[in-house]
Write a sequence for this structure.
């Protein structure tokens, strides 16, 4: 029986695909479309939505010079009454990014005196006094604040003055401007105003943040149902780690580090074994990014091997990496997790002494993790042996269930890495693979590899930073055969320290290859013949996966 669509369903679909500017116009056309348009426009709000909301409510206009306090209050009451029609739609508020710090006069064609986010939020605080809603954002689900605004947390506090029963995610990225006193006050009130809080993110660092450690620990101690915690050098310490171990629902732990020698988790606290004994061992997702290897090893060796499924480890050393402590010991800990399916492992620095000879041999211990489906390996270490076809083929044989595979390395002082034979091994030995990311790839010295049989039709996303191709005809023919679809990304960000642009387009290699692939497409259309099934240009393009950037 066919479903009868209601008018409300149609209006919702219209709003779902409309642009923000169109939603703003639709909201003023009729009462029937007002609510779906406003909900779609303001559900995920940032500075732009707040600024637009003040304009809609009339608060962006400057009052007349002769306006007295009574007139001013009446104007605010009228603004608040209109504001109340919109504010229940705001469920996610993200005040991050650098674009809002200074808003020029005449922004978007309007004469506005809003030049800073603190000015805007102070206007909201005035409206909140006359609003029918307490708190001002009654349906808020998530909140995020940028570190550049940290010195004005007092303007954010009115948003958390009353209970927010739906708030589940709270994020403040700490930075030097953060006002510690206001931050302590805000964190102290969170357990009361947001009793259903499930996710807390407090990354970043602060100088002399030891006095804040107790505030962070008390906050975690009052949230026993916390499911996810993200912390940095300022917000993570031994007391926080100990209180996290009492969160029975904790499934995700993300610790971001910085460039410093002594971690806030002191040697004494680690030596007494006061953490990771109750619930931390049952994590499903663990990310230790640029943390001291000693802390990384300490946590890894105390995790329950039957629970962890996703792991991210960024390992680096200021004075060089030790093969035993910074490579082999973390890898040995990873191998303990038979259920792990996603691994992001990055090494940055320099190996001490002659350890560089044994790096790839140490990495083969990971082959015991047979269930890996998503693998990202980043090796920014000077090595005597560069990545080659043998290394990649051994990985494909060890991880046959791969769906996503990325291998990046520092190739500045090394010859080009694997050849197209590695693509054959990846597609042949890993039948479920749909994403490949490599630092570079080159044509083989002798001839292109022959495919034993055409691989099954599937979508393949191929991301390569550098191509070394001599015969574009052969490359085009090979790439057509290797997969039913080919997508090449032009920009890739592989870590916070590395931002690279694809370089293959600079010498015209890819334009030539796509031209050759079009020729192959034309031949395929001819082969279909007048009696064969009609094959459209678009259909063949989808089959070949031709990507044209021109």
């Amino acid at each position: 029986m066919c479903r009868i669509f209601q008018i409300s369903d149609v209006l919702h679909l219209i709003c779902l695909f409309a642009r923000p500017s169109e939603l703003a116009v639709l909201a003023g056309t009729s009462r029937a479309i007002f609510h779906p348009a406003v909900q779609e426009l303001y559900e995920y709000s940032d500075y732009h939505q707040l600024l637009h909301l003040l304009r809609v409510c009339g608060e962006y206009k400057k009052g007349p010079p002769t306006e007295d306090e009574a007139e001013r209050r009446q104007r605010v009451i009228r603004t608040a009454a209109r504001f109340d029609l919109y504010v229940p739609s705001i469920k996610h508020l993200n005040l991050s990014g650098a674009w809002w710090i200074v808003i020029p006069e005449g922004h978007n064609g309007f004469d506005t005196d809003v030049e800073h986010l603190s000015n805007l939020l102070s206007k909201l605080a005035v409206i909140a006094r006359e609003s029918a809603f307490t708190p001002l954002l009654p349906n808020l689900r998530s909140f995020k604040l940028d570190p550049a605004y940290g010195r004005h947390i007092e303007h954010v506090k009115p948003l958390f003055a009353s209970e927010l029963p739906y708030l589940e995610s709270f994020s403040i990225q700490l930075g030097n401007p953060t006002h510690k006193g206001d931050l302590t006050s805000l964190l102290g009130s969170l357990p009361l105003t947001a009793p259903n809080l499930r996710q807390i993110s407090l990354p970043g660092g602060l100088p002399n943040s030891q006095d804040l450690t107790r505030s962070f620990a008390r906050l975690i101690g009052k949230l026993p149902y916390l499911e996810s915690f993200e912390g940095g050098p300022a917000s993570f310490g031994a007391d926080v780690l100990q209180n996290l171990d009492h969160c029975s629902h904790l499934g995700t732990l993300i610790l971001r580090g910085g460039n410093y020698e002594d971690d806030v988790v002191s040697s004494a606290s680690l030596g007494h074994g006061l953490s990771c004994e109750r619930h931390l061992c049952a994590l499903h997702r663990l990310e230790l990014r640029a943390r001291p290897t000693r802390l990384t090893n300490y946590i890894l060796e105390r995790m329950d091997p039957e629970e962890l499924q996703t792991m991210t480890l960024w390992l680096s050393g200021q004075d060089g990496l030790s093969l035993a402590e910074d490579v082999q010991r973390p890898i040995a800990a990873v191998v303990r997790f038979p259920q792990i399916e996603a691994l992001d492992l990055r090494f940055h620095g320099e190996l001490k002494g002659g350890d560089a000879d044994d790096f790839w041999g140490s990495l083969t211990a990971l082959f015991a993790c047979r269930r890996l489906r998503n693998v990202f390996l980043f090796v920014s270490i000077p090595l005597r042996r560069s990545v080659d076809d043998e290394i990649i083929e051994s990985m494909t044989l060890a991880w046959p269930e791969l769906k996503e595979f990325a291998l990046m390395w520092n190739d500045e002082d090394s010859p080009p890495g694997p050849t197209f034979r590695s693509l054959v091994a990846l597609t042949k030995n890993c039948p479920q693979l749909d994403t490949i990311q490599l630092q570079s790839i080159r044509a083989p010295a002798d001839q292109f590899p022959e495919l034993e049989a055409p691989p099954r039709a599937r979508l393949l996303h191929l991301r390569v930073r550098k191509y070394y191709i001599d015969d574009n005809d052969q490359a085009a023919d090979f790439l057509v055969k290797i997969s039913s679809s080919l997508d090449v990304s032009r920009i890739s960000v592989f870590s916070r320290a590395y931002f690279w642009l694809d370089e293959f387009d600079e010498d015209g290699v890819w334009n030539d290859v796509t031209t050759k692939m079009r020729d192959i497409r034309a031949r395929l259309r001819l082969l279909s013949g007048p009696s064969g099934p009609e094959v459209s240009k678009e259909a063949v393009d989808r089959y070949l996966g031709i990507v044209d950037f021109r």
About this structure: Residues 509-528 form the longest helix (20 residues).
